[in-house]
Design brief:
single chain; alpha/beta; Rossmann fold; 5-stranded parallel beta sheet; 5 helices
């Protein structure tokens, strides 16, 4: 059914300040709704219960965040295993870059990021346009 309302984007961000900025930016610019959770555990509950058009995951909880991405890619949740994914982090080394590529991460946002980077990431995650 192509007339279904667009799906939300799930944001896994432990910083309430960073998360609220992303959520508010999406709302103010009429971008797809962004639903923030503060922990990987909460993200797992959300992903098990409903579908999302995209997922943004903070690597602040690195081992847990990577495990979450692995679970998404292995179809352990209600969300499509090929859902578009972006990550946020303060730095990226070579091994992290290789790991993110293997997990089909479409974008890495380096903190602190610019609002325009957030906007373009949300637009990228909303999924392909239905015609």
């Amino acid at each position: 059914m192509s007339s279904a309302s667009p799906l939300d984007i799930l944001l896994v961000e432990p910083s309430s300040l960073t998360g609220s900025i992303i959520v508010a930016t999406a709302r103010q610019l009429n971008l797809p709704a962004v639903r923030q959770v503060g922990t990987v555990r909460n993200a797992q509950q959300q992903l098990a219960a409903k579908d999302f058009s995209g997922v943004i995951v903070s690597l602040d909880e690195a081992p847990e965040a990577v495990a979450l991405l692995e679970q998404v890619r292995s179809a352990q949740f209600a969300v499509d295993a090929q859902v578009p994914v972006a990550v946020t982090t303060t730095q990226v080394d070579a091994s992290t870059a290789v790991q993110m590529k293997a997990l089909q991460v479409r974008r890495v946002l380096l903190k602190p990021f610019k609002v325009r980077e957030v906007i373009s990431t949300i637009e990228m995650l909303k999924g392909p346009a239905q015609t």
